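Hey,
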Amino acid sequence: MSDVKPILSVRGLVKRFGGLLATDHIDFDLLPGEVHAVIGPNGAGKTTFLSQLAGELRPDEGSIVFGDVDITHKPVPERAKAGVGRSYQISQVFRDMTALENVLLAAQATEASSFSFLSSVFDDEKLLEAARHHLRLCGLGARENTVVSILAHGEHRQLELAMTLATRPTVLLLDEPMAGMSQAESVDMINLLKEIKKHYAVVLVEHDMDAVFSLADRISVLVYGRVLVTGTPEEIRENELVKEAYLGDQEEV
């Protein structure tokens, strides 16, 4: 895998908040078709790192290259249109609208007519079918006309993933997709992400170690804003530094 050109390449990424180094000269590569998980204790800088990849935080130093394009200073909309899609730790959905309407709005954001009325979007058969496809892929095909406020929490997370996919990304940035889920919902989400990973390269930030070791091709362990080590799930499990710094506190491992 080391001979494969990364689809996303990060070098020397630094983000400071006052005297705190939230990300400390991070080097990171995402290869085509892989799930690269980022794990670490609370406060390690994982969400800060993801926010810099998405364009929500501007790095103080370093570079982010997507494909052949330096996107270090490009804003969120440009990154989204280029193919970087992000889901969030806290669900970002429109609760008074149906599941289908939520996905259509997300899809519309990448269209040239992104400021047209939602009613006109329902006349776009291509957009409608794409939205329904993503709902089906995320296990919500039967819920397209359901108002979001009555969906279960796990279904909210599935919907958010469908909305992210509707923006037509090539890279997915997933911030704790299992957050707040029951064990049964987490199992469903793991199975869903196993299907998703066949089609997308994924940066996964997640505290659920069962999910991480089940899904990841490689894992980077972040501690105090620095990458302690990167390796396969097996290498990470057996690494003594990782056990001492993080995994020793995880009941799942």
